[in-house]
Amino acid sequence: MTFKTLLEQYSFDEIAPAFKALWQWNAPEQATRLQLKDWRRIYQSLKETKTTPSHYYIRLGCRWESCTPMIDMTPTQPENTLSAKTGHNNLPPPQPSSNMSRSAPNFRYRCGYVSKTSFASKTDHDSARLKQSSDFALGLHHLSIEELLCLQLSGYSSRQIITASLEEAEHWKDLAAKASAARDKAKRILDQQAQAGVTTIPYYSTDYPCPFYNLRNEAPPLIHVSGNKELLHREDCVAIIGARAADTQGQDTAYHFARQIGEQNHIVISGLALGCDTAAHRGCLDAGGPTLAIVASGLDITHPKANKSLQDEIVAKGGAILSEHPFGMKANPTRLVARCRMQVSLPRSVIVAQCPILSGTMHAVRFAQQYDNNTCRQLYAVQYNHWNELNSGNKFLLDQGIARPIRPEEKISLNEHNLLECKKNI
Question: Which one-letter DSSP state was computed for residue 69?
């Protein structure tokens, strides 16, 4: 279903409140899968009640699920806001309960409207996260890279592995030793990756990127890197994301901003997809800058195939390709959504170049807010002179105050805190 189909029934101003309501509740990912009848029912309900209920039931397939507030959407919301994490990688979201409450920074803080004093202890934050990782995933330190990959190949999810206790880790160590077929396959994959120049980094390694610890139990136990792995530890990076079906204006905007970042020798992060991602990588490369692509498949597979030459060029010119999946793993919708959390966890500034309101880019926006964890991440959405279906997601993010506006013609740079600064091009 396209946004154009919705506009045949309702105007954008009528649809936006319903989409905002879904975004507030614990089912933002369902907003990209709703049928037209669902939108009609949700909008009619909101129109009749004229208020946003604290709980709402939406039909997902043949069953009904309760949705509870997930994020703070208004600047006037109090500091302590209920927050519920939504699962992915085929893992069910936790049931709403009092245990799911956590203290969340307010809207202004999460969108980057903070004083410079908030960044004085960045090194302390990294040290705390390193300590947090050692306290959180105690079981992982007793498992080798080969054993971790063996468990993944045996069907254990990343969340199960990350949250393993010492006792579970010892039990899994025995399982990995007995699972000879999976162990042999893991060893064979690691050998193939080593021969191809791919480095495998475990969660407990000092080479593991500190920002990934913010993902907590959603952090990947292993990451696989081709190219310059030193880029993972640099803080001067900006994520530029957007839709695959972006028009010429959207791709030109992504290219324009990425080229500016590349000219300053800062890192551009994107996902190697068609459209805005490809334009962002190309803009940075053309400026001679380093770019990092975070992909949803094994590094022996290029998704999409059309970007094989671009992937090789990124590595050849000092960039890097990163994945949480080993050789032989193909991209699928679940993995494409999951990789978004890594795309937005590394940088402090994220630019949405262009996307429709029903877009996979919205998953990245959701993750940027869900895993902020006091990192003062800035979220920008490009503001266009004319709105249409292809940039309706940008309009939604700006109208609802989720993102800060940035004009296509603006000049951008990173300040001493590695946050984006925008200046009008006079």
Answer: B
Please give the DSSP secondary-structure letter assigned to residue 96. P
User: Rounded to whole angstroms, what are the CA distances from 290 to 196, 202, 315, 319, 330?
Assistant: 21, 24, 9, 5, 26
Identify the H or E element spanning 63. Answer: strand 63-67
Closest alpha carbon to 253 in 293, 292, 282: 282
Extended beta strands in 335-410, E state: 349-352, 378-382, 404-406
**Of residues 15 and 237, more confidently modeled:** 237
pLDDT tens column, 351-361: 999 999 888 89
Residue bearing tokens 């993750």: 367
3-class DSSP assignment, residue 25: strand
Type of residue at 331:
A
Vertex 235 angle, CA 361 and 106, to 5°: 60
- What pTM, to 2 d.p., does this model score? 0.72
Q: What does the pLDDT look like over 133-151, one tens digit per residue?
A: 444 555 677 789 999 999 8
Q: At 403, is the secondary structure helix, strand, or coil? A: coil
Q: What does the alpha-carbon distance between residue 405 and residue 384 come to, in Å, rounded to a whole number?
A: 9
Under a CB-based contact definition with an 8 Å cutoff, are residues 380 and 404 in contact? yes
CA-based end-to-end distance of the chain? 41
Q: Is 412 left (phi over 0), alpha (psi -120 to 50) or beta?
A: beta
Give the residue, 356 or 113, on which the prediction is more confident.
Answer: 356
Of the candidates 172, 145, 201, 180, which has an alpha carbon nearest to the alpha carbon of residue 322? 201
Exposure of 131 by Cβ count < 10 A (0-12 exposed, 13-18 middle, 19+ buried)? exposed
| Nearest of 196, 242, 269, 180 to residue 384 by alpha carbon | 242
Compute the average pLDDT of residues 298-303.
96
375 band by pLDDT with thresholds 50, 70 and 90: low
Q: Please say whether the beta carbons of 225 and 325 come within 8 A.
A: no
CB 271 within 8 A of CB 277: yes
- For 103-155, strand residue ranges (E) read none
Amino acid letter, 133: S
Question: Coil, strand or helix: which one is 72?
Answer: coil
